[in-house]
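Sample entry (127 residues):
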Amino acid sequence: MEERIDKWLWATRIFKTRTIAMEACKKNRVTVNDAPVKPSRMIRIGDVVSVRKPPITYSFKVLGLISNRVCAKLVPEYMENITLPEQYEILEWQKMSGFIDRAKGTGRPTKKEHRELDEFTTFLEGL
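Predicted structure, serialized as tokens:
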């Protein structure tokens, strides 16, 4: 038994819409067993699906196939999260350093933000 990768990504709530899942596949942000895939690629139980959502890459093992979206409580029946802990550390670093997630076009950093940036980079150099 097989299922389309874009449908599975949407049904397991990795992406909000199937369209977004299709676009991620087309932009080579989704791989199955370390090979980039098209949205129509069929997956099987046991495949490892990696999804790059900057700044980190999530990895999931397919435990079951599903074509209809289910509630969040049922998702663990269909996939196992095997994302490496290092990926979550990257996410934590980004949360701790608020200046990295600056919206484009908001202008130059303020004096306070500049001091915080200098303090943070000095801290990183000391590690």
